[in-house]
Structure formats: structure tokens, C-alpha cells
Specification:
single chain, 313 residues, alpha/beta, Metallo-beta-lactamase, Chain A, seven-stranded mixed β-sheet, five-stranded mixed β-sheet, 9 helices, 12 strands, 31% helix
């Protein structure tokens, strides 16, 4: 089932809705590059629980419309898997009548967000003017939501992609919404989190026993996606160790590195950002410690030939 085109980017397909289990829907936005994320929703007999939103005002309205066209039931809860704007900019469409659930750090980071900074970093994006709406229900480690008698387990996995990563696990259906702990076809991005922490989260993700994975970006897949993510992150750690020991700056090290098996992943410039995070950890800084974000994005743009990062949202 497809929803109407929400933009005039002819090179992209329209968002699509995929029923991954009875009453459990993934909202997929290809090609899955910067700000083209996935969301989802679970439909019960009387209400709906949404998992994540989208990153632009226009796309937020389209996602909200898609939910309403699928079911007339009211949205009771919205789960934010993490704070990044592509997953939270659409929160406003479900406020104030919906409980917005996220990790405590997710709320803090959404409240610190800046649409102006995002527009400056991604000048080709059509962001509109979505107001920032943070989670109003927070937790630290685990929480359970219910859609009728269907359990949705919310499990804190960070710091990994960010400091505040949460997965939504439906054990009865073996369906896992990972947020950006899984990129399917895209380069994993740990600038705001922890390489080491993400690698520690991978076995926990595997142990859940998911058969269907709704990744934060890219097509719906199976648990094999975790192998690619883990392999990439371990490779980044190895490169970082060599570069750090030789005193080679992250950008220079990224430019000198052959992407090898990972050359087919989208957004390869994230290597420069990931090396900044890996170097931070090699310096002994806490996992998720703040980085100089403008400097990191400047390095990624330099890696990208001085061109703005590809954003078709």
C-alpha cells in the first residue's frame, strides 16, 4: 500500500506502508538517506500506537494522513526511539492528545534541538517549520506499552547511535522496531553516541530473536542486518586505532581509507563523523560525550568534495 507523493523529487519513490504482522505497519521512506527515515504504527481494536515520526513538516503531515487513512482509531501513544530530528520532527502532528514516550535523555535532547542548525547543515532539505515537541512520558531502562493484549517492550540500548536509543520489541510477533540501531543499506552513524556502546548493543539486539526488523533507514529486513552494522563499526574501530596512534586527524584518515566491503553503503561521508567519535573514545572521553558538531559536519562535507550532504527530504 502506498501513500501519495509528499514531494517533487522524481528520483525517489513515494513513502509506502507495509503490514509486517497483523495490525503492525512499517512506514518506509526510501531511499533511506539523510532524513529519509522509517516509522511505524500498531493498530488495536480501539487505539493506535505510533513508533517514530518523520523529519520535515510536509512528510509529518503525510505520515499522519497515512495513519488516519489506515485506521480511524485515535492515536493513544507515540514512541520515539531516539532524539534525532528525522524521527521526532513530526511529533507535533500527534500533540497534545497523545502520550509521547521516550528515554529521559531523548526528551532533553529534543528540547535542545535547533531547526535553524539543521537547515544550515542540510540546505537542500525541504524542512518547513515544524515546532519541536518532546516526549512527555519518559523512562530510564525499560517500559511496557500495550495495544490491546499485544505487548510492546521498550528497551534502552544506548549510548549507541545516540545517548538515548530505545527499541520497540513485539515479542509475540517477533517484530523489532530498531530506530537507527539498524541501517539497512546505509552507513551507520555514531557521531552522537558511541561506537563501543553500539557494538555492545548488537548482541542484545540479536538475543531478542526478531524475525522481522524495521530499521531506522532502508527496507524492512531480518536480523542479518545486525551483522553488517557490527562489521562496519568494528572496522571503524580498527581504522581509528591506527589513525589515532599515528596522530592522523579523522578527516585525513577517512580520505585515506578504502571503503572496501562498505563502498556500497549510502552516505559514506559518515566515516569522518564516526572517526571523530572513535577518536573521542580512544582519548578516554565518556561514551556519548559532546563533540564539536559543526566541525564534524564540516569534515563530512569536505569528505563529500565540499558539497552539501545528500538530503532529498
Amino acid at each position: 500500500m502506498s501513500h501519495g507523493i509528499v514531494h517533487d523529487r522524481a528520483e525517489l519513490p513515494p513513502p509506502s506502508i507495509e503490514e509486517v504482522s497483523r495490525g503492525v505497519f512499517a512506514y518506509i521512506q526510501l531511499d533511506g538517506t539523510w532524513f529519509l527515515n522509517n516509522a511505524g504504527f500498531v493498530v488495536g481494536s480501539e487505539s493506535v500506537t505510533v513508533v517514530d515520526t518523520t523529519g520535515t513538516e510536509k512528510r509529518a503531515r503525510a505520515f499522519h494522513d497515512a495513519v488516519k487513512k489506515t485506521t480511524s482509531n485515535p492515536v493513544q501513544a507515540l514512541i520515539n526511539t531516539h532524539s534525532h530530528a528525522d524521527h521526532t520532527h513530526g511529533n507535533f502532528m500527534f500533540s497534545p492528545d497523545t502520550a509521547i514516550i521516550g528515554h529521559e535523555l531523548c526528551r532533553e535532547e529534543v528540547l535542545q534541538g535547533s531547526l535553524e542548525r539543521i537547515k544550515a547543515a542540510f540546505p537542500t532539505g525541504d524542512f518547513g517549520d515544524p515546532p519541536y515537541v518532546a516526549p512527555n512520558v519518559t523512562f530510564e531502562d525499560r517500559m511496557t506499552a500495550w495495544v490491546d493484549d499485544l505487548k510492546v517492550e521498550l528497551i534502552y540500548m544506548g549510548p549507541a547511535h545516540t545517548t538515548n536509543d530505545v527499541v520497540a520489541w513485539l515479542p509475540e510477533r517477533k517484530v523489532l522496531f530498531t530506530g537507527d540501531l539498524a541501517f539497512n543499506g546505509g552507513t551507520p552513524f555514531a557521531m552522537a553516541g558511541s561506537i563501543a556502546g553500539w557494538l555492545e548493543a548488537i548482541p542484545r539486539l540479536r538475543e531478542l530473536g526478531a524475525e522481522t526488523v524495521v530499521p531506522g533507514h532502508g527496507p524492512v529486513c531480518g536480523p542479518e542486518v545486525f551483522e553488517t552494522v557490527a562489521s562496519y563499526l568494528a572496522w571503524v574501530q580498527e581504522i581509528a586505532g591506527n589513525g589515532f596512534a599515528e596522530g592522523i586527524p579523522p578527516l585525513e584518515m577517512a580520505k585515506a581509507t578504502d571503503l572496501g566491503d562498505f563502498a556500497g553503503l549510502s552516505d559514506p561521508e559518515r566515516l569522518a563523523g564516526n572517526l571523530h567519535r572513535a577518536y573521542s573514545e580512544l582519548r578516554g572521553e565518556p561514551r556519548g560525550a559532546p563533540l564539536d558538531v559543526p566541525a564534524v559536519f564540516a569534515d563530512m562535507m569536505a569528505y563529500n568534495g565540499g558539497e552539501p550532504l545528500r538530503c532529498l527530504a
